[in-house]
Amino acid sequence: MSQQKPLILVSNDDGITAPGIRNLIEAVRSLGEVVVVAPDSPQSGMGHAVTISKPLRLNKTDIYGDILAYQCSGTPADCVKLAVDKVLHRKPDLMVSGINHGSNSSINVLYSGTMSAAMEAAIEGIPAVGFSLCDYAYDADFSLSAQVARKIAQNILDRGLPASTLLNVNIPKLVAHEFKGIKVCRQAVAKWKEDFDERVDPNGRKYYWLTGQFVNNDKGDDTDEWALANGYASVVPVHFDLTAHHAMPVLNSWDYSLS
Amino acid sequence: MSQQKPLILVSNDDGITAPGIRNLIEAVRSLGEVVVVAPDSPQSGMGHAVTISKPLRLNKTDIYGDILAYQCSGTPADCVKLAVDKVLHRKPDLMVSGINHGSNSSINVLYSGTMSAAMEAAIEGIPAVGFSLCDYAYDADFSLSAQVARKIAQNILDRGLPASTLLNVNIPKLVAHEFKGIKVCRQAVAKWKEDFDERVDPNGRKYYWLTGQFVNNDKGDDTDEWALANGYASVVPVHFDLTAHHAMPVLNSWDYSLS
Questions:
Q1: What is the ipTM of this complex?
Q2: Has residue B118 been placed in a domain?
Q3: Which of A50, A186, A196 sits opposite B111 (nearest CB)?
Q4: Hey, which end of chain B has fewer CB within 10 Å, N or C?
Q5: Is there a contact between B84 and A194 if contact means CB atoms under 8 Å apart?
Q6: By the 8 A CB rule, do B72 and B38 touch?
C-alpha cells in the first residue's frame, strides 16, 4: 500500500485571489496534496467571526489550475468549518493560512482573520499556522515569506505541534541578505490607540473611519515585535484556552453572596 | 470637592434594543453613571471583528430615557473603540457587556461578540466583564442574571481586577431557589462539531447554513461547563496574551535554517 501524501488545507483572509495566498500555495504545493478554501472577498479584521445570520455560498474555481480550490462567501473561520465538513474527505495533516498582506504580530492576533482561520483549524485538531508579511502592499515581495512558510510547514509535517497549539508567524519586510533568521517569541504587550477619522457625508451627517496608531509598551527582547524590528521572523505559539489561571486565587477571595 | 460617581460603559452584541442589555442597564444603573454604546443590529458570532473597509455611524438614541445611549453601525469591538475615542470624556471605571441571549462558556468565548466588547475594553485598560444567560429566547427571564451581574459589577468597582484580565460570566437558566451560587472556573476544553445544513435555492444553486453540536470533552469539575450543568454561575478570568508559553521549549528545538 502506498503512503498517502500529506493533505494540506490553505486559506487566508485577504481573499482567494490575493498574491499572498498564491505565494503560499506555491510554497507548500510540493509538500503534499493542497486544497484551497478561501474567502471570495477580502475579510481583513474579521477576527474569529462566524456567519450565523445568513447562508453561505461555496463555489469551485479553477484559478489555481490543477489544485482543488473553492471560494466561500463567509469569513476565514467559516471557510475552515466548511472545508472540514463539506470539502475534505479526511482530516488534513496541516492547515496553512495567509500569507497575510500586513503584520499580525502582538495583539493583532485577536483581530486577524488569517489567524482565526488557523485557530479554527487548531480547534478541529489540525496542526495549523498563520503567516503574515509586514507589508500591506498588494505587490509586496513574498519571496522571503515563502521560504519561511515552507520551512515551518515542513517542520510541522515532520514533527507535529504540541497539543492545542498553533503558530503565529510574522515575516519582516526584508530581502534575503538582510534577514537574520527565525525566532521563537512571546506575544508583545501592545495595543492600538484609536483615532477615528470623523467626516461629514453629502447629506450633512457624520461618519467615522477606524484608524489608529500601534503602541508597543513592551521593552522585552523576547517578543514578536522585538524580533521583527531586529531582522527576524517571529514564531509565537498560540493557544485558545483564554483562562487567566493566575487570576483565580484573587477571584476566589471575593464575596459572591446574592442579597 | 465631591467624589465622581463611577463611570460605567455598557455594550452587547445582540443589539441596543435587546432585553438582555435593558436588564443589564437596570442592574448596574444605581452603581454609577451609565453610558450605553451598542450595535444598532444583532452582531452575534462576530468574534473580535473590527470594521475597516467601511465607515461607521454613531447615533444618539433616547430609548433608555435619561441614560446617555448611542447606537453604532459596527461590531461590538467597534462600539467600545468609538465609545473610548468619541463618546466618553474620561476612562470608564467599569465596562459591562451583555447580558447575552445564550451561553458564551468554554470555546464560545472566541466567537462571542459580547466577550469581544469586554476584551476590547480590557485591552484599553478598563476593568471589564461579559455576562451571558444560557437561554437563547428573546423573552428569557433575566432576573437571576441581573442579580449576578450587579454583584460582580460591585465587586469589580470595589476591588478592581488583576492586570490585563477580564471576566467571562455565564448564568444558568434557573430560577433563584434552584441556583447554587457563583463559582470561579477555568474554560472547559470543548468544541463545536460542524454540521452544515445544505439547501438548494430557487435557482437550483446550493447554499449552506452553519449549524453544529457542542461537544464537551472535558471531564473536570473545575470548568465553566461543569458549573453551569450543576446549578452554578461560572466566572472565568480571561486574558488576551495568547502565547502558549509551555510550547516554547519544543519549538526552540526545531531546525529553522533556510536552504
A1: 0.93
A2: yes
A3: A50
A4: N
A5: yes
A6: yes
Check: CB of residue A227 under 8 Å from CB of residue B222.
no
| Of the candidates B40, B47, B5, B48, the residue with the CA atom closest to the CA atom of residue B21 | B40
- The structural domain count of chain B equals 1
Q: Residues near B40 by Cβ (< 8 Å), separated by ≥ 6? A: B15, B16, B57, B59, B71, B72, B73
Name chain A contacts of B164, Cβ cutoff 8 Å.
189, 244
Number of residues in chain A? 259
Tell me the per-residue pLDDT of A185-243, one tens digit each, with 9 for 90 and over.
Answer: 999 999 999 889 999 999 999 999 999 899 999 999 999 999 999 999 999 999 999 99
| Chain A residues closer than 8 Å to B155 by CB | 254-256
Whether A201 maps to a domain, the answer reads no
CATH number for position B154: 3.40.1210.10
> What's the mean pLDDT in B20-41?
98
Q: Where in the sequence is the domain holding A139, given as residue range(s)?
A: 7-187+221-240
- Judge whether B114 lies within some domain: yes
* Predicted TM-score (pTM) of this structure: 0.94
A-chain residues near B147 (CB < 8 A):
258
Q: How far apart, in Å, are the Cα atoms of B95 and each of A200, A206, B144, B183?
A: 29, 26, 20, 21
